[in-house]
Design brief:
Helix content: 25-40%
Number of helices: 2
Distance between the termini: 84 Å
Strand content: under 5%
Length: about 70
């Protein structure tokens, strides 16, 4: 039986694509940590000075709170 040639290893383009993808992922993580701004689900809610919106359930259901007054 003939000896097969040894496996030459991972091609250079695969190594470079992995390095580039890893670098981009690292940049995204750094930007998310140090980028500033508001993160999380609260950033999709209207700000406190938005007018005409609906009252939160905690204010609308509170009988002691006058309607339309937000805390």
């Amino acid at each position: 039986m003939d000896d097969l040639p040894s496996y030459p290893g991972t091609p250079r383009w695969v190594k470079m694509a992995g390095i580039v993808a890893g670098g981009l992922a690292l940049l995204l993580v750094i930007a998310a940590i140090f980028g500033g701004g508001r993160h999380g689900p609260g950033r999709h809610l209207p700000s406190g000075d938005a007018r005409g919106g609906t009252l939160p359930a905690s204010v609308a259901d509170d009988p002691a709170s006058p309607e339309g007054v937000q805390r």
